[in-house]
Amino acid sequence: MKIGFISDVHANLPALEAVLRDMSARNVGQIYCSGDILGYYTYPDEVVELLRERNVHCIAGNHDRAVLVGTKGMNSIAAAAIEWTREHISSSTFEFIRDLPNSIHRPVEDVMTALHHGSPRHMSEYIFEEHVSDELLSLAGAKLLVLGHTHMPYRVQFPIGNVINPGSVGQPRDGDPRASYAILDSSEWSFSTIRVAYDQRPVMRGVRENQLPEMLASRLLRGI
Predict the structure, then answer these.
(1) Distance between CA 145 and CA 114 in Å, rounded?
(2) Helices (H), the chain
(3) 120: which of 110, 139, 141, 211 fits an S-S bond (Cβ 3.0–4.6 Å)?
(4) DSSP state, 179?
């Protein structure tokens, strides 16, 4: 069975649509999302509707929680996008985000798997590849730990298990502007990072038409 992992969609509908089409072409079955469904871009309701339609198993990220509780501690660009989101989302989207768990801990293909946004310690902790240790697997009580938040894909393997980050669907920051996600092929227990090109122009137009910070538009073409 092929299992898809996504993270950091950030209300970027064209990127999510492209990723889900690619998953379908690759016969991906279950899909899991490591948070930050909302924030930055201007398709919050459409993104949530699509995730619901595809029965994606989702957890909350720090941007999702900020929609509920406010933007204290966020930089001005992130905060501006969250305030826009709070003013424009439907009650159905608000309820979906409100009800998301902070983590998932369950067997996936008989392997205990944990999803956290930042880390098992804190939702907003950045775990870059060079920071990964097997301590994270022990803290999570899992053999497969899936993280998000950094917008950079990686896989680190230890004798006791694997830590992966699928990168960002909606706002990659590793120098590659294509949407990023990961596939686990459980028949071989192999992981792949997949990159998918999509048309950034509608997303950039949405930023500008809604007078959000210009950086949110321009960075999409640079992948940083």
Answers:
(1) 5
(2) 13-25, 44-53, 62-69, 76-88, 91-98, 134-140, 201-209, 214-222
(3) 139
(4) E
For 98-151, give the DSSP string.
HT--S-EEEEETTEEEEE-SS-SS-TT----GGG--HHHHHHHT-SEEE--SS-
Nearest Cα neighbor of 150 from 178, 130, 121 is 130
Spell out the domains of the chain, with CATH numbers in brackets. 2-222 (3.60.21.10)
Which tokens belong to 31? 């899909």
- In 3D space, the residue among 194, 218, 193 whose CA is nearest the CA of residue 204 turns out to be 218
Structure tokens at 131: 């920071």
Torsion, Cα 37 38 44 50, to 10 degrees, reads: 0
DSSP state of 215: H
Instruction: Point out the residues of the chain with pLDDT beneath 70.
Output: none
Query: In the beta sheet, which residues pair with residue 196?
Result: 179
Tracing tokens 């424009």 back to the chain, one arrives at: 88
- Return the half-sphere exposure (C-beta side, CA atoms, 13 A cut-off) of residue 219: 15
**How many Å from the N-terminal Cα to the C-terminal Cα in the chain?**
33
